[in-house]
Amino acid sequence: MVHRDRLHPTDGALGDNVATEPLNDFSRLCVHTITTKPWSIEEAARAYSAAGVAGITVWRQWLADRDVGVVGRMLRDHGLKVVSLCRGGFFPAIDAAGRQSAIDDNRRAIDEAAQLGAPLIVLVCGAVPGMPLDEARRQIADGIAAVSEQAAAAGVRLGIEPLHPMYADNRSAVNTIEQANDMCDQLDCPHVGVVVDVYHLWWDPRLRDEIGRAGRANRLFAHHVCDWRTPTEDLLNDRGLMGEGCIPLRAIRGWVEDAGFRGFIEVEIFSNRYWAADQREFLEKIKSAYLAHV
Ligand code: ZN
């Protein structure tokens, strides 16, 4: 084991962290289609496969008006493992019709995941501006409960992704991994678990403990990486490439792995800067950053 360099800028106050070895191949590297947004699903499949990327997470926009089963076969023919489908959720609504429409959409997402061969749907749980957050969380739990049986029958797991509190107004009332763990305890369904996305959770003093709690409950379903830029110029579309920001990526991966997670490490970067760049060069930068910083 290599002793961690205490002077590394991302170590900060994490001096008690165990050493985590760098990754040395791409067998656990997954890229989200949104990361290379200019590419069609076919272009992404060809490029990821040629670059040695092992997994792909598909955003639902890439499946619009497509035969989802055919897309799933195409991805597997390129040697790619379909890691998850993004995204379900957005359960809270101001009236019953809105809540039912969200449940219907999540049922369609479960069907799509099954046809695609995706074992997991990432849930961006939703929020409504002006609705009390505890009411939104009640509606989220009710929404997940309404679809969990169908998900279990389809062999599709549901991963609650807590979002950074800056999105608590309209994207998610679940803002900490502790809230996600509490909701999983309440729902008590083995097909419902937690997604650890470093962008949303890196700042939380309870992160390490709650990752451990999720691991002990066998509900640590996915790990998303990128970086937090200073200053962040756009609340949604200015995520950094790993190493460009202040997130202690390797420490968090260590916590996730200590908790038993051995799945894919998913690169999910919304970035106006990188979407405007050459996507092949960007993919090579992702590979280098993955080895150097994750
Ligand atoms: Zn994510």
**What Rg do the Cα atoms give?**
18 Å
What spatial form do the alpha-carbon principal axes imply?
A: globular
Low-confidence stretches at least 5 residues in length (pLDDT < 50)? 1-16
Please list the strands of the largest sheet in the order they lie side by side.
1-2-3-4-5-6-7-8
N-to-C order of helices and strands: EHEHEHEHEHEHHEHEHH
- What is the helix tally? 10
Mean pLDDT across residues? 94
How far is the first residue's CA from the last residue's CA? 16 Å
> What can be said about the biggest beta sheet?
8 strands, parallel, barrel
Strand content: 5-15%
- Count of extended strands: 8
Strand pairing plus helix content: what structural class?
alpha/beta
Keywords:
294 residues, alpha/beta, 10 helices, binds zinc ion
In short:
This protein is of the alpha/beta class. It is built from 10 helices and 8 strands.
